[in-house]
Specification:
By secondary structure, this protein is mostly helical. Helices cover about 55% and strands about 5% of the residues. It has helices at about 5, 25-45, 60-85; strands at about 15, 20. Helix 2 (about 25-45) crosses helix 3. It starts with a helix and ends in a 6-residue tail after the last helix.
Length: about 90
């Protein structure tokens, strides 16, 4: 499991000296939003039709959208996990 301090890092930190000021979204939020765009674009054709081309019920569409949202957070968590494993780049 990832540490709360890493997942809560600011996506766009503002620094002054060694102090980091954070207002807005976290890095996890940013990663999830990027993944969400790709997942929506990929699944747009299924928005009104099911896997077999049959119209989706309102309940199915709601579940489908919840699944996409959950998947975007899972991708964000995976990106954060991988970035924790990477060695820092020398500047």
């Amino acid at each position: 499991m990832m540490s709360a301090t890493f997942t809560d890092r600011p996506a766009f930190p503002v620094t002054a000296g060694h102090e980091v000021y954070s207002i807005g979204m976290t890095l996890r939020d940013w990663f999830a939003g990027m993944a969400l765009q790709a997942l929506i674009a990929k699944s747009k054709f299924m928005d009104s039709k099911g896997v077999n081309g049959e119209p989706m019920t309102a309940e199915d569409m709601a579940q489908f959208r919840f699944d996409i949202a959950a998947s975007s957070l899972a991708y964000a968590d995976a990106m954060i996990y991988q970035s924790q494993k990477q060695e820092p780049h020398d500047a």
